[in-house]
Amino acid sequence: MKNRKTVKKIIKDLEDNIYCRLRPSKIQGVGVFAIKKIPKGTKIFEGVRKIKFINISPKIIFQNKKINPAVKKMVKDFFVIFEKELYLPNCSLNKIDISFYVNHSENPNIAAKDGEIFFAIRNIKKGEEITANYKEYCDEY
Pick from 16, 39, 41, 47: which is nearest to 126 by CA? Predict the structure, then answer.
């Protein structure tokens, strides 16, 4: 067996800290859904706080002919333009996590603390789609 301490840590995380999974969404395409009851105040998607975001002009991305159109669409779908600046992670897009699949709702059940760590703003039922109010983060809504 590999390092027992590491294995115990992984098992404990799987038992206690995994709240959601991806599924088809009635709101839009793919969504994030609770796989167990999530109490109000619970931190979810803490991994995103390890990613730092930089703001750049959207023209740098969308007018670049070397960037594949499918990649440009992914940037448009997953990242926000706020005050005319595009916010992208300072790492590869391959490192984005499940939180980037959270859909918009006018009646959300999560919010971001300090713009980074999502937490439940009310009790969330098992099977419920996890949603955020994009208006808090994006000029396009």
Answer: 39
**Entry pTM:** 0.78
pLDDT in tens, 99-126: 889 999 999 999 987 666 789 999 999 9
Distance CA 60, CA 139 (A): 18
The span from the CA of 62 to the CA of 72, in Å, is: 6
Domains and CATH numbers, the chain: 4-136 (2.170.270.10)
Query: Is the distance from CB of 132 to CB of 111 less than 8 angstroms?
Result: yes
Separation of alpha carbons 98 and 38, rounded Å: 16
DSSP state letters, 58-87: HHHHHT-TTS-HHHHHHHHHHS-EETTEEE
DSSP per-residue letters across 96-122: --GGGGPEE-SS-SEEEETTTEEEESS
Please give the C-alpha separations between residue 73 and each of 3, 38, 79, 118, 122, in angstroms, as whole numbers: 41, 32, 10, 24, 32
